[in-house]
Specification:
Elements (H helix, E strand, L loop, with lengths): L1 E4 L23 E2 L4 E2 L5 E2 L25 H15 L6 E5 L1 H12 L7 E4 L7 H19 L3 H16 L2 H7 L5 E3 L2 E3 L1 H16 L2 H12 L12 E6 L7 H10 L4 E6 L7 H4 L1 H13 L4
Parallel strand pairs: 1-4, 1-5, 2-3, 5-6, 6-9, 9-10
Antiparallel strand pairs: 7-8
Helix pairs in contact: 1-2, 3-4, 3-7, 4-6
Length: about 290
């Protein structure tokens, strides 16, 4: 069994045959893909505190208990117990999912054979926390005024600007703005707020607050993670930087290897870069990490 975990917006449906939009990892998981469902049984979860079927905040509830990646790891252990799985072959985690994988490796090292951690570190850096703090305040502002979806729209728009890169935005959004009634609307602005509008229809503001904060509460001690691990860093990632991943690589207790890739998708490379990520998957799932 391989547990597959993504960002805070990911859910239990990893991929869906015939419907690429239904699964959150269609480029990397499925028959014949790097996370090959023909060879491995795959398990996804709805995060605790999220907008799925697991326990989370009710509409308007801003006092839901603070959770962190260790709580998600304990949830996975409970699910594995229920399924009669004493040991998992691997956990493949990207972004927040990589943080949860590290937490599982710290808490339950005897229950997982190997970890694949893509753009997920043992702690967050202050600049990334700064961006997320502004996003959370935008959501709280909206909720306080009866427009949580509007606050979430703004937060997601800002988040998209941190996930991607200057290079991608330059390539895609260099056209002139539209001028109507004295107001300029820029192509990049239309993209960001379209993504914000879409996200606000699918995700609860209260869940966003809970899991965004959970990222910034991450505190895993790499020296207490003896599980063999493959790490992937993206050079252009603004949120989980190359330095963050190199620090993790330098302090992990168990055998490990760091892959460094380049991608104009930045932090979102884990959703897009099938060819670049395939060697890391192969080593993490089948290779000799001694």
């Amino acid at each position: 069994m391989v547990v597959a975990l993504g960002g805070i917006s990911a859910h239990r449906r990893i991929f869906a045959p015939g419907d690429r939009r239904a699964g959150w990892w269609p480029e990397l998981a499925g028959p014949g893909l790097p996370l090959d469902s023909d060879r491995f049984r795959l398990l996804g979860i709805d995060y605790l505190g999220g907008s799925g079927a697991s326990t989370g905040p009710a509409p308007g509830e801003l006092g839901f208990p603070a959770i962190d990646a260790r709580d998600q790891a304990r949830l996975i252990a409970r699910v594995a117990d229920h399924l009669g799985l004493p040991v998992l072959h691997a956990i493949a985690g990207a972004s927040y999912g990589g943080m949860v994988a590290l937490a599982f490796g710290e808490l339950f090292p005897h229950r997982v054979g190997r970890l694949l951690v893509i753009s997920g570190a043992h702690r967050t850096n202050p600049l990334a926390t700064a961006w997320r703090s502004v996003q959370r305040e935008a959501v709280r502002f909206g909720v306080a005024r009866g427009d949580g979806a509007g606050g979430l729209r703004l937060a997601r728009a800002l988040a998209m600007a941190t996930y991607r890169t200057r290079d991608e935005f330059t390539r895609r959004f260099g056209n002139a703005p539209r001028l109507e009634d004295g107001r300029a609307t820029f192509p990049v602005e239309e993209y960001l707020f379209a993504r914000g509008d879409d996200y606000a229809t699918r995700y609860r503001p209260e869940s966003f607050l809970c899991l965004s904060q959970s990222i910034d509460l991450q505190q895993v001690e790499p020296a207490r993670v003896p599980v063999p691990a493959v790490l992937v860093a993206v050079g252009e990632d603004q949120l989980v930087t190359l330095d963050d991943m190199r620090e993790l690589d330098a302090t992990l207790a168990g055998p490990h290897r760091l892959f460094e890739i380049q991608s104009h998708f930045g932090h979102d490379a884990f959703l897009k870069e099938r060819a670049a990520l395939a060697p890391a998957f192969a080593l993490a799932l089948d290779g000799d990490l001694r």
